[in-house]
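In this supplementary section we document a worked example of the pipeline. Step one takes a protein sequence of length 433 as its only input; no multiple sequence alignment statistics are reported here. Step two produces a three-dimensional model, which step three serialises into structure tokens for compact storage. The input and output of this example are shown verbatim.
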Amino acid sequence: MQYSHFLIEKYSLNCVRDSDNYTYSVDENNKKITGKNVQNDVLVYTISSLSDKELTLFNTDGSDTTKYFLVNKNLKHNMNSELAKWGNKVIKDCTPILQKYKIDFYPFQAKFNEISNTLIIGLNPASNGYDGTIETYNEPNEFQLSIEKIFDGNLEYVKNKESWKIYQNLMKIDFFKNLSTDFNYMNYVYFPTPKFYDIKKIKDFDVIKICKSLTLDLIKIINPKIIIVLGTGSGIDVIAKNTQTILTGYRKRLLVQGEIEGITAFGIPHPSYNNFQAENEEISEVLQTLINGKKVMPYNLSKPENLEKKIIKKETFEIQRLNDNLNQFNDFLFQEFNNKKHLFNASIKGENDTLDFRIDIRDGYFAFRSLDKVNNSFFELKGKENYRKLFSENAELEKKSWLVYKTFQNYNANESIEDQISNDLKKIILNIE
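The serialised model returned by step three reads:
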């Protein structure tokens, strides 16, 4: 059918699936598209809307409905031209700042994905090295900014995102896990600082205004269907208009809805902070409901009874019980650290690594790292990827000087804390390299 051929060719339906092994047929009367692969897996999509610019599809699996937006392939050529113009404007506006100030620069964290309909925006890249002081070049710096550097993203993110806390916490939310890499991740302001407003310490350039204008221009060009802003404390309120809190969690706003350049935008807590698992589940469910076009009335998530941090007094914490649980490991023993009654310390050596363990009863955490500092870091353990996987769901990674940092509130309040910590220790020791 001519109409069917037009649909499939014009909108490249294969980009709906990860694999290109699907063939498609169109039922014009019922407004449905059926995809089938060589394994005879069948997927049925309902056509929601169709125009010269875009095609919108729904796929329903049980009670779950997923919405797909496909852009006319012929429009990509026009978009690429507009993106090139935008990149040249970034070069023109940002090069004078880079020629004068010793600051890093990247508009995108991930490499730009021209076919994605989802845009994630962070306020600006965090940086431990630039503290907001004005450090300038003695002579004008001949900084050469290129289109490639702008769209290639932050190479450190590309190489190390799996071990990056922000990415790990984002992937704990099923909505983002399901996106896989199908999103654009950019910064609202392109220059890294420890805190967002540190960039205002540069007085001879209005850096926020410059970057805001460029970011809004980009949004007009790529016209994303979904915008997610990282940060409900300040993030979305800085960027969006007409914000409204939809979901409030145990201690903070979890989902805020607003508008950026006429596009609905959603703010979630910045993933540099941990959410409770139930909060992540609620964010994912409500976000998907709103994106599917359904309304959600604002509400608060009910607090569980055992939410508050479990206080364990040193008089009731049984360190001997924990040591007895671990007596199968010869010479592994927790003892008071530096004569402090609330701190206990132990270490164990494997073939390649020596691990340093800490239990702090007063501050309520269990943590571990390398005993030895390597390359100015306590994180350099041969088996660190295994340790990350073991604790990726219920602990913080690379917090302060600790590779893994698990607070007591992440343990079950109805079970012995000593038994739970010893179970964690057994898992670690059995994986030591």
